[in-house]
Amino acid sequence: MSALPDPHAASGRRAIELQTIGMTKIFGSLVALEDVSIHVRPGTLHALLGENGAGKSTLVKCIMGFYQPTRGSVLINGKEEIIATPRDAHAHGIGMVYQHFTLVPSLTAAENLVISRAHPPAVIDWRKEIAGLEAFLEKMPFKVPLQVPVASLSAGEKQKLEILKQLYLDQRFLILDEPTSVLTPGEADEVLGLLRGMTEAGDLTILMISHKFREVTAYADDVTVLRRGRMIGGGRVGELTVDDMSRMMIGDTKIRERAARKSFEASKVTLELAGVCALDDAGLPAVDAVNLKVHAGEIVGIAGVSGNGQSALIEVLSGQRDMSEGQLFIDGQDFVPQRQQMAKYKVFGLPEEPLKNAAVPRMTVAENIAFRSFDEPPIASRFGFMSPKPMRKKARELIAAYRVKTPSTEEPIENLSGGNVQRAILARELSGEVEVLIVANPCFGLDFASVSEIRSQIMDQRNRGAAVLLVSEDLDEVLELSDRVAVMSGGGIHYVVPIAEADRNAIGKAMAGH
Ligand SMILES: Nc1ncnc2c1ncn2[C@@H]1O[C@H](COP(=O)(O)OP(=O)(O)OP(=O)(O)O)[C@@H](O)[C@H]1O
After folding, report:
1. Is the pTM of this model over 0.95?
2. CATH number of the CATH domain containing 494
3. How far is CA 358 from each of CA 86, 350, 428, 471, rounded to the nearest angstrom?
4. Closest Cα partner for 207 from 219, 189, 197, 190?
5. In this predicted model, what pLDDT tens digit does every residue of 150-171 receive, in sequence order?
6. Residue in 20, 33, 57 to alter for ligand 1 test, most ligand atoms within 8 A of Cβ
7. Which of 26, 30, 409 to mutate to test ligand 1, by most ligand atoms within 8 A of the CB atom?
8. Is 502 found in the same domain as 458?
């Protein structure tokens, strides 16, 4: 017997066929999913499209057993099965890869794989396990280094490892939630191309949530489009145009025209970072002597591969991480990123993972939207209490203006879809007078109509004279919005160019640390 029982050989499991019949999920008074029947043919890559809040996550959570559908059933290889928990889904060969990594960073890839088994051995014989894992990797379309800590892998390698983990667990129906959102375009093509190879060989079936038409048209066989919880259309990708798909997604919702860039005469420096250094959680240098000036009416976009210090830099600027050295200035004055000074200098921002970093998940949408102004009239009453009526009124206005989909102002914000949490936080941050705006990956996980809307909002703030620091892993976003492009690598910024001189190749080299 081999060290690692080869689950594939043992079960001989191949690509799985999956159908949902009349899937319906009701949360209180909200029908999140209504009578959705989809058919994912075995050995195909099936894309699931829909605007933010359309019900994509709810559908896959019902398939995975995270939610119990109000009505409806799942057929696996033509047979109705009860999936009461994710464990049941795994037992049927259905696995899910999330947008965010679920690996343990301090463990190696090998350790992560072995502990992911339902019944890891009590005493692990590593020599045998490694031999078994190497034999497993031999048969896999992509490789990752097995014996280095996951923390030192690139985003692309981590994503590959997440997928490998599912295959190692013998899951032959994979649900991928926006699998390429953390990958460079090159890595995205590589991963999707290899997965497509596995589906074509009949080894795997994939249901992929995506907002990227390019990936859907290039790699998917079939598509299903959801709108407001209902299945609105779909079919063979080859028989549909991008226009067909986008019309199915948003109906006749108007897409906001991108705001034009207003030109300014030489303007003052608003935000200045001088020799900013910061350490990561392990006490190692994360931000290395960053010097940067952002002028009024200017967007400086910081491009870079994730994990090069951008998150720590954003945390420093939003007061969530101490600087180890350096200084910040706004309008030439010393700036300490604390609540009072942020209010004084009108500093607003959207950090990464807004539900975690910029919201209180269990509090209502109205309360979360009121955070910036809960201690100012009219929301604060004379006696220091919050007045619910003005708070709800303001929340209702912002919800309408930013098209946040929520059943009411009183819904806990954690119940909103990912894209709608993002919109609610942006509504809060962009609704006042903004002098400095600091945004990290503002369009992560947003549908195409929202991307257009949010980028226009950012451009509006710039045109009104705000100094905008945009950190984004999406190079296209940086190139589209920025007046100047900076590249962060290894914690430092050693490359800054005006947009007119920005060259993709040179930026790519700087991103790789050259
Ligand atoms: N646990 C919950 N309780 C209440 N409402 C919920 C819950 N989960 C989801 N919803 C609601 O169901 C609807 C569909 O949300 P879902 O997360 O499925 O959308 P989505 O298509 O995945 O959106 P996104 O692209 O933004 O992730 C939304 O209106 C959301 O607010």
Report:
1. no
2. 3.40.50.300
3. 29, 7, 10, 16
4. 219
5. 888 877 788 889 999 999 998 9
6. 57
7. 30
8. yes
